[in-house]
Design a protein that fits this description.
alpha+beta; 2 helices; 4 strands; elongated
């Protein structure tokens, strides 16, 4: 499987789901978890989707303008 660049076109909403994770799994995550509703472009295919990111990964993706998936 190839990992491709997904360029962020628009971020619609960001929701912290850390508490939900703790209740579901019974353990504390290493860092906050975010559920992000975004539109991205991957080789001309534009998609709107809800994705889950670690907070540090999402901050890096916002800064760089893309994420790998």
């Amino acid at each position: 499987m190839n990992v491709l660049e997904h360029f962020i076109k628009e971020i619609h909403s960001v929701r912290d789901i850390t508490e939900e994770f703790k209740q579901h799994s019974g353990r504390e995550p290493a860092e906050p978890l975010l559920q992000v509703d975004l539109t991205y472009d991957c080789y001309g295919i534009i998609t709107r989707e809800t994705k889950t990111f670690w907070k540090s990964d999402f901050e890096r993706a916002k800064k760089e303008g893309y994420f790998m998936a």
